[in-house]
């Protein structure tokens, strides 16, 4: 008898987008409202230019990225900023999910999404990690 997952395929970019949308929709109202204008995009990997800018050679190292001007540094009277975007990278997230084996894929996607929303709010990695550690 074949194992139940032997006829399954890896979640697609569209599947990831649905999981990211569900994670975003599950955020408390104040956070969702503040993050409301951010565009969420799912790609297999970061492009070469992004990896070079982040000084990374291995595309599996980057699971997500915030691109834009955080809401604390926007100038309402100045020129329009680039749209705020969060990139979720499917293949590195799948790798992390497989390596961990102790959480659901939806939890990892939500974690990466929330981390990048933290950057949208103007938090740096150290501040985000401190908040995450405090919540545990």
Automatic annotation (TrEMBL):
<dbReference type="GO" id="GO:0008237">
    <property type="term" value="F:metallopeptidase activity"/>
</dbReference>
<dbReference type="InterPro" id="IPR010428">
    <property type="entry name" value="Zincin_1"/>
</dbReference>
<dbReference type="GO" id="GO:0006508">
    <property type="term" value="P:proteolysis"/>
</dbReference>
<dbReference type="Pfam" id="PF06262">
    <property type="entry name" value="Zincin_1"/>
</dbReference>
<keyword id="KW-0378">Hydrolase</keyword>
<keyword id="KW-0482">Metalloprotease</keyword>
<dbReference type="InterPro" id="IPR038555">
    <property type="entry name" value="Zincin_1_sf"/>
</dbReference>
<protein>
    <submittedName>
        <fullName>Predicted Zn-dependent protease, minimal metalloprotease (MMP)-like domain</fullName>
    </submittedName>
</protein>
<keyword id="KW-0645">Protease</keyword>
């Amino acid at each position: 008898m074949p194992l139940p997952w032997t006829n399954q395929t890896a979640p697609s970019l569209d599947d990831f987008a649905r999981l990211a949308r569900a994670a975003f929709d599950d955020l408390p109202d104040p956070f969702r409202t503040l993050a409301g204008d951010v565009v969420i995009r799912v790609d297999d990997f970061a492009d070469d230019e992004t990896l070079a800018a982040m000084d990374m050679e291995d595309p599996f190292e980057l699971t997500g990225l915030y691109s834009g001007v955080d809401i604390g540094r926007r100038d309402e009277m100045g020129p329009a900023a680039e749209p705020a975007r969060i990139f979720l990278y499917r293949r590195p997230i799948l790798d992390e999910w497989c390596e961990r084996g102790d959480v659901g894929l939806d939890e990892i996607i939500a974690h990466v999404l929330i981390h990048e929303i933290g950057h949208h709010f103007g938090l740096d990695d150290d501040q985000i990690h401190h908040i995450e550690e405090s919540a545990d």
